[in-house]
Design brief:
103 residues; 2 domains; 3-stranded antiparallel β-sheet
Length: 103
Amino acid sequence: MIWQIRQALPWTRIEDPVLRAAFQYANQKAVLYGRRWSADESKKLYSMLKKHVFEELNDLDTKFTLVHVVWTTKGNRFAFIRAAVAQLDTKWHPTDSYCPQEG
């Protein structure tokens, strides 16, 4: 499931017969799980990462603003998330920001 997220593969690729054949050819003992399993595991991963991020943010002694955008593509029932964080000084002026960019 993590390779699916890292490679930004669509959920339909999980049960792709060509992909399944490639895995079976590379390793006859390979077991590929279905879309439902992958979606459930992704939810668990998201919850764990979200909890960790918010714990770290709550431990900060500075002010910050968190901006996020959620969107979907036509015909896709799953969402994508983009987030940016900006630190603020005591006068509420932005001092630093972080917005990850895909290479």
